[in-house]
Each structure stands twice: as structure tokens, then as C-alpha cells.
Amino acid sequence: MKLADHRGGPSQESQSMEGIKHIVAVASGKGGVGKSTVTANLALALAGEGLKVGLLDADIYGPSQAQMFGVPTGQRPEMAGEQVFSPIIAHGIKTMSMAYLVDVKDPMVWRGPMVAGAFQQLLNQTAWGELDILLIDMPPGTGDIQLTLSQKVPVSGAVIVTTPQDIALLDAQKGIEMFRKVKVPVLGVVENMSTHTCTQCGHTEAVFGAGGGERIAGEYETRLLGQLPLTLSIRANADGGRPSVIAEPEGEVAESFRVIARQVAAALDGADAEQGPSISFS
Questions:
Q1: Fewer CB atoms inside 10 A, N or C side of the chain?
Q2: Nearest CA among 200, 227, 145, 209 for reference residue 178
Q3: Burial class of 164 by CB neighbour count within 10 A (0 to 12, 13 to 18, 19+)
């Protein structure tokens, strides 16, 4: 897979971002829906399609990507120049996270402007190099970082992660509305924890309800990118530093993430069609 280059040139905030073709925010209206796990596996699935992928963990208060990618506690990024960090490469993905710069046990007792400033530093002072896609694992909610991203960064689109339950869908809708107001295209919705299959009897049940992701995707005229099961392996693999796409590459979960990755590429393809060359497969 090869993505067309639609970099903004003079509109870029930092030279460190000049090599990035697409920036995609992965967001949710609330915590606890598995957004970071989805982001990690999506990054690996996109890389498996032959793309150069980076991942910025923008959850300043609760960074989790370092653990999900198996980066040892205490590992720090090297300097690539004056006040510029080299990203830490894990499983072939260029990553950056606040967890690399502070003790993960220390709480970040910061007000909103400080958090927004830290986000901009992580984004702009990382030597990302040439990337097809930079995924940004957004913090929950619709606060300072989301606003800073939409105002300061040329975002190609957003992926919304939700669970099927009504309370999660309400918050997911707020996330979609926020991106629409700031003119960021919503590439699609990922419904996580869609169904659970009992390992003892094989019975499959929609624990959190059914059809929610499809319903809001239809309401907002976007795509249902995929539905993921509620399984122990997804959580265990992420906690162990080897997300499912690489821990169980032949499994159904990994294949689901590959389908989602192709859907994201197709959504970017649709956005590119109005601007110039589209994604081509080779």
C-alpha cells in the first residue's frame, strides 16, 4: 500500500512534521472503551500493509502506549538535535509518549494550558522523519488537547472508538460533533467490545448491546470501520507489550484490525480524491 503525499508545506507548524503525509486522530468521548488498545493495533496493522507509521501518545495524564509496545520502564528518547527528540522505535513503529520523559508513577498535576503545551512539544519536537501516517492516541473527552490539535495541526481525519452501550455512544457522538465543528473529517467508527464468546460453551452474546456503532456511523454519514470482540487475549496481549496484531498474527482479532486498517486507508483515499492522487495498492 502506498499513500499519496498531501503535505501542507508552508502551513506546517514544525520542520519535524514536514515528512508526515497524513495525521489521524484516534479519539473517544470517554475513557474505558479501549481506544489506546485499538490505536496500538491499528498502527501495527497499517505497518503490516507496508506503510511507515508513527504513534504519538497524547494522553498526558495517563499515557499507556509505552507499556502496550513493550518499551522498558525508564527508557528515554535520544536527542536528535537541540530540543528535538528521536522517537523510540517499537515493533517497527516510531513512538513518542510522556511516559518516556517522566516517571510513570508520578501524577501530572497540570492545568489545561500546560497539558496543551506539553502535547505541542511532543508533537513538534520529535524527529518523525518520513511517515505515511502519524496516529495520535487522543485523551478521553473534548478538552484542551483536542482543541489544540484541531487548531494547530493539519489533521487528515479522525477515527472514533466506542462500545455499543448507550452511555458510550452518547459520548462518542460528542466527539464526532467536536471534530465536525472544527472541520476535521471523521473517517469512521470502530465498535469495540462488540460481542463476547464464552470460552467454555461457545455462546456469543452482545454484552453491551448491539448495533450502536453502526447506528451512529449511519447517523453521521460515515463508515463503520469494524467491530471488535470483547476477549481476554486482546487485553492480555496489550498489557504484555505485544498487541494482538503481532502476538497472534493469524488470529481473527488481528485480521479484524487489518480490515479496519484498510478501511482507514480507503477513507483517506476518499478524502484525497478531492485533492489529487489517491492511495494506490502495489
A1: C
A2: 145
A3: buried
Helix, coil or strand: residue 161:
strand
Cα–Cα distances in Å, from 27 out to 3, 11, 33, 61? 22, 24, 10, 15
Question: Cell digits for 44?
Answer: 501495527
DSSP-derived secondary structure letter, 221: T
Tens of pLDDT, residue by residue over 69-88, are: 999 998 999 998 888 999 99
Grid cell digits, residue 81? 538535535
Q: Which three cell numbers stand for residue 43?
A: 498502527
| Residue 2 pLDDT level (bands cut at 50, 70, 90) | low
pLDDT tens-digit readout, 126-168: 999 999 999 999 988 767 788 788 777 889 999 999 988 878 8
CA triple 256-257-260, angle to 5 deg: 90
pLDDT at 271: 58
Task: Name residue, grid cell 502495489.
Answer: 282
